[in-house]
Specification:
DNA-binding; homodimer; Tetracycline Repressor, domain 2; 9 helices; mainly alpha
Chain lengths: ~220, ~220
Amino acid sequence: MGPRKTTTRERLITTAAELFWRQGYAQTGVNEIIQQARATSGSFYHFFPAKEDLLMAVIDHMSEKLQVEVFEGSDNTVADPIERLFSVLSAYRRYLAANDFVFGSPLASLAAEVSENHPAVREKLSEFVEGWTSQIEGLLTDAGPRLPVNTDRRVLARFIVNAMEGGVLQARVSRSAAPFDASVTQLRTHFDLLQNDVESPKAPSLPVRSTPRREPPVGDWKAW
Amino acid sequence: MGPRKTTTRERLITTAAELFWRQGYAQTGVNEIIQQARATSGSFYHFFPAKEDLLMAVIDHMSEKLQVEVFEGSDNTVADPIERLFSVLSAYRRYLAANDFVFGSPLASLAAEVSENHPAVREKLSEFVEGWTSQIEGLLTDAGPRLPVNTDRRVLARFIVNAMEGGVLQARVSRSAAPFDASVTQLRTHFDLLQNDVESPKAPSLPVRSTPRREPPVGDWKAW
DNA sequence: GTCTATACCCTGATAGAC
DNA sequence: GTCTATCAGGGTATAGAC
């Protein structure tokens, strides 16, 4: 492959990605995308039969970009899996802070806006989140005996993703990085405690709580 | 105050609240709201000069409803502050599960969709989140010596809110309660560990980590 | 406060020449 | 593949009688 100029299709996708991210899907008109991408209506509908088809392409584009800039853009010289995890979180923060957190999570916004109205979009976003969760779960598995044996790696991975995504959302709404940083700080504490628990595994057998813990029946909605 | 029928204004707000929650703000047309509320265009614009004014009223309505159904709808016979917290989380789960989690967080969706385009809306949503965070922080403060002395109650409260809101979002996208429940389960573990830490506070002074912890400079974006 | 009718604009999408 | 011109429809919002 020789040197290659940006194609119209690529420009449509990248500019749409940015506009959707900033303003949302519904708020962004096709005309606006066309203008800003220096394209025409004819080109647009040549590549994308409908606006939703562009949306699907945008999600693919964003997924790939996030994968590259955050996961692979983190300090992958870090050998320790847990420190590697925090390196990823740090890369995510850098990515978001580059826009002062105002754009929020690139895909979570779309999830909230269009997941109900466009089933295919919801499906794609779901796969993306699962992918990230699995990657984090992989790091936790690599941590091996560093974490207590009874730690459910998948639950912990989901927990981390939730705390981060929630943090981004609140950061955007409150126009402050504090909510995001609270998640990272407390996650660090969480891991410190988990690792202490490995060292002295007898302690947690005497909980202070008054009521017994109830394990939620996962997948069973209406219960509890 | 005697018995009172529902006013047109109220019907407009409640039906709009549900429609915004389900479909998003932009996807919901004024006509749709008017029809479903059995009102007319004239009434609508009599009460609300513009669609955005209705949105503001809807947010107020949702905030109040959430406060009543979740916080006050939780089991407030529970005296222990920490168990009280988990009672609130349980009430929140009940509230969401009543719609099979498909609607997501009533206000977070709006936050993601319209926060950038409507500054006044963003401000109102920010205040709402702060209110909830403060209420949770209050419970944590009430827990007093049950938590380690060096625990920043505000950071922990933010962390909890983040984990819950993130969980709701992923639950909606993945059409499964599992992500939400993962947050609750792991938060329970987190509190167990924190309380163990109170009992044997010497243990955490020997962390396994290889690199020193970095406290993030809150409010200072571009750093780290 | 509520009704009907309607203005006016911007939307996504199409047609057909080049 | 790209262009211009244009369509049909739904969007928010208004006017004015009752």
